[in-house]
User: Which sequence fits this backbone?
């Protein structure tokens, strides 16, 4: 009795990966082994960079807050210390957005923190 192999499923599995590697350069798009390795490595990069994205945005927010705080004669660390001491619950993302898009509100927060 001849061996029964499910070529339909294996071909579909390969086509699915090759469809995901469309747009890659050279052999990375159409040679099965190279495309599979490239796609798998891309998944590890995606996982790593989802973590890095959070780190990068936090650093950006801190830089923006620091730049705005220095215009008010405070450093970032002193400003954050005063904010926590005064009990204001505001995160860095919102604070950076205020510093960039609404300087009057940021200045009001700084004044309230300085006086408290």
Assistant:
């Amino acid at each position: 009795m001849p061996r029964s192999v499910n070529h339909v499923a294996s071909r579909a599995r390969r086509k699915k990966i090759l469809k995901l590697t469309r747009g890659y350069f050279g052999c990375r798009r159409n040679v099965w082994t190279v495309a599979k390795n490239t796609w798998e490595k891309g998944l590890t990069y995606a996982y790593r960079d989802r973590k890095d994205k959070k780190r990068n945005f936090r650093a950006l927010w801190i830089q923006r807050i620091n730049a705005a705080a220095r215009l008010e004669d405070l450093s970032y660390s002193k400003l954050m210390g005063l904010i926590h001491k005064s009990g204001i619950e505001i995160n860095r993302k919102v604070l950076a957005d205020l510093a960039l898009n609404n300087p009057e509100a940021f200045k009001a927060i700084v004044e309230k923190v300085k006086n408290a």
